[in-house]
């Protein structure tokens, strides 16, 4: 992880720290665990989809084009495995969730389930981002 990635991840955690009290208050105590459950489900789906996408993307071009088979080494199974997990970031989904407006219109109608959407993305971001920050600090 280079310095820019580290700073971006830290900035994401700062946003979480600023937003989390409002989200928890908006959810209420019984819905925090529901947000955690949705965050875990979203994380597992993203991980599975990432693995399902990276392996074919790494190997199909080798089967289709002889020049790739001839000029480039095979990625094997380890390269796509590392790429599948190492390429995940939660900042984009968190930024998308935070960009949801609080109100739907000028009459003050609240956006439905906004707190739940942001909460589930916060947990997802925590799952993807925290191990990277921890690893880069320890190395």
Give your account of this protein's structure.
This protein has one domain. Helices cover 78% and strands 0% of the residues. The chain has 139 residues and is mostly helical. The protein is elongated and about 65 Å long. The relative contact order is 0.19.
**Average pLDDT figure:** 77
Number of domains: 1
- Structural shape: elongated
User: Percent of residues in beta strands?
Assistant: under 5%
Short description:
78% of the residues lie in helices and 0% in strands. The protein has helices spanning 3-27, 29-64, 66-71, 78-86, 91-98, 114-138.
How would you summarize the topology of this molecule?
Layout (H helix, E strand, L loop, with lengths): L2 H25 L1 H36 L1 H6 L6 H9 L4 H8 L15 H25 L1
Helix pairs in contact: 1-6, 2-4, 2-6, 5-6
Output the keywords:
0% strand, mainly alpha, 78% helix
């Amino acid at each position: 992880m280079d310095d820019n990635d580290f700073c971006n991840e830290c900035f994401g955690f700062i946003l979480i720290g600023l937003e989390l009290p409002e989200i928890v208050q908006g959810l209420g105590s019984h819905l925090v665990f529901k947000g955690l459950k949705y965050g875990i489900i979203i994380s597992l789906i993203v991980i599975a989809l990432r693995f399902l996408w990276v392996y074919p993307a790494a190997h199909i071009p080798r089967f289709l084009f002889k020049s790739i088979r001839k000029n480039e080494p095979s990625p094997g199974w380890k390269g796509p495995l590392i790429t599948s997990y190492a390429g995940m970031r939660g900042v984009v989904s968190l930024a998308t969730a935070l960009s949801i407006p609080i109100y739907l219109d000028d009459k003050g109608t609240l956006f439905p389930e906004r707190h739940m959407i942001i909460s589930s993305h916060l947990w997802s971001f925590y799952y993807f981002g925290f191990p990277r920050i921890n690893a880069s600090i320890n190395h």
